[in-house]
Structure formats: C-alpha cells, structure tokens
Amino acid sequence: MAGGRWQRRSSLAVWRSAPASHLLPLPCPAPIPDHPQTLFPVPCHLSPVPYSPVTRIDRYILTLFLRTVLICFCSIAGIFVVFHAFTSMDELVKQGQQQGGLLPVMARYYGPYMLLLFDWTGAIITLMAFLFTVGWLRRTGELTSTLAAGISHGRLLRPMIIASLLIVTVQLVSREWLLPDYRDALSMKAKDITGTAEQPISPQYDKVNRVLIDGRSLVAKASTIHEPSFRLDGDFPGFGDLLLAPICHWMDATADHGAGFLLDSVQYPENIDELPSVGVADRPILFTSRDQAWLKPRQCFFATSVHVDLLQTNQSATRMASVAELAGRVRNPAIHSSLSLRVLLHERIIRPALDFSLILLGLPLVVNRRGRNLFVMIGAAMGTVLLFFLIKTLCSAMGGNGYWLSPAMAAWLPLILIGPVAYLRLRDVQLV
Which end of the chain is more exposed for a tag (fewer CB within 10 A), N or C? Predict the structure, then answer.
C-alpha cells in the first residue's frame, strides 16, 4: 500500500515540476497485485503528449491523392493537346515560323484551354482520384492494416474530402477571375492565334435607346466593328434612320462620356459635324464634334450599355462570363434577357455545391464494402456521373424553354434532389 502511494505521488510530482518544454510521456506505474488502491494507477493521459491534427498517415494519403489528381489531369490534357494539335499542325507551324518558335505558340494557344479543361473535368477527376487512391491502398494492404488499427473509413477519407473541397474552390476562383480574361483567346482558331481575324456579328437591339447595333464583322480581341450599321428607331433630329461608318471601337466610360461605340469617318449622315449632340432628357445618346471638344471631325459617339461582347455569335463568350457579368446582363434593361441566360446565372451560383455533391455521391463506391473489382467501381462511378449530368441537362433544358420550371427552379432542382443524397452518403461513410 505504501509503495503504491509513493509511486503515484512521485509520478505526479515529476509531471508538475517539469518545465513545459521538457515534458515527456511518463510510464504508468504498475499496480500491486491484490491491492484495490493500486488497480487504477495514475493514467497515462496525465502526461502532456503533443497533438497534431494532421498525422503522418494523413500526409501520406493526401500526397497520394493529389498526385493521382495531377496524373489524371495531365493524362486528359495530354490527350486533348495531341489530338487537337495533329488536326491543326499546319496552322501552328506557320504561326511558329512567324512568332519565334512552335513551343511558345502552342503554350500561348493551349494555356487557356488547360484552365477550361480543369473547369470542365475537375469534379470528375477528383472522383476518379478517390477510387484510384483507395484502390491502391487496398491492393497494398495499407487500407486493411489502417482499418484494423481502429481507424474508420470516415477518418481515413477526411484529408481527401478536404482536398476535394479545396479543388472545387480553386475551380471557382479560376471560373470567376481567370477564365473571363481568356474568353477571347478560347474563341480563336488555330490559324488565328493573334486574334485579329474577323468573325460574324450577332445584331443586338438597344431597347432603351431604340437603336439596332449591326455591322459586317467583329474583331472581339480589339473590340472593333467593321462597317458598323446602326439603325436609329428613336427620335434623333437630323440624324435620319441610319448611322454608317467604315469602323467603330468600343470605349469604356470616362469623365466625358459613358460607355459606348466611337465611330470614325462617319459616312452617313454626311453633315455629321453640323449636327448637335442629341439624347433623351438629360442623358446624351449621340455625341458629335460640334459641341464635344474631345471628338475629332467626322467622329460620332453612341452611348449604350450593350457591350461589344454581346455581339459575338460564339456562345462561349457568354458561358465564360463571371457571375457579376451575367447578373449585369440580366439586369440590363437595354437588352433582352432570355430564359436560358437566367438559368445559366443560377447554375453558376450553385456550381461549387453541385460539384462537391457529385464527389460525395461516389463515396460508397470508394468504401466498396462488397470488395468489387476496381474497374467495376470505375464503371459504377461513370454511371453516377452520367446520371448526374442527365438530371442537370434535363432541368436546364426545361427551364431554358419555359417548360414547367422557372429558370431559378430549373437550376436549383438538381441540388435539391442530389444534395440530401450526397449528405446521407457522407454520413454513412463516417459511421463505417
């Protein structure tokens, strides 16, 4: 009895008197047989043990998972570049001879496409990386030994789930702040890497100013319209019903004027320099050099909120716009806001939540309780992805065409259907 008390007191004395920087785990004193007071000696947890939220196994699994994500993305990107480059090799070689080498030209041309490819395939690659990583751990026996140590699947998958959330966040940042700056480059063909080729123009009607904006062609990168033809349906005394010029440029708003188009060498009306600026109430619409000192002779400025990007026939310019730009187009009273544009705006808002839900849908396949073959699990994962996009595409089509669903409901319905299922699957994995 005395020996047991002395052991407990000495252990506590050493633990309390030791400096904080030198505290180490102390061994538990051995109990004296058949002595009730020493059956439960000083517990080991009284010794201060350093705690780290990220363990060695977490770092190992996270490294393996991120490496798998990188390999999958590089494989898909490599296949895309090889097939596309072979179909456009003549144009790329010709551009390389003019611009200092083939590799710089390919890097400048395919660089933005890597961002677009990551935005398209990020969630699917992450789901496949889940399957490959856990499949590798199961094949090497590391998964069995880890589970035998009392670690659950939920704890084992936690670093990969957090990394998946970070990947979805990186996709969001790329989609909102990087891709909009490269949408002109992504709409270019291989034979026009410089972006100076002309493309057809999509006429837009300014409902506020009652002006139809049209022209022969558009150079999106330079924000230029060749042979603009603006039909004036509003009341603009002296201007007639047409405004013609060889070329016009888009100009952002300044202290002298709002945003709009600057027409050079105006051909019609012929007496453009004699006409005063006109507008509605206190809002000028057509500026001339007669009363605007910043304009040169034969120049005319048309103030409008119809941006030059809205004149592109390529819909990728709209799909790669940021959420703020899409919201501005929907709220712009000067242009018609279609139902499909409203659906696209809501889809962009909930896109991160939908991507993360898609990843969580595959967690039961990752756990693989029945011990199925890895390729069977990959096939099941691809079926899950196809079902996910089928629901999303069907709802988007119904909302864009006005069938049964409003634009907001068409965009949010996939998340309403899939979100709870994804959460239940996450909870189910946590308990295994």
Answer: N
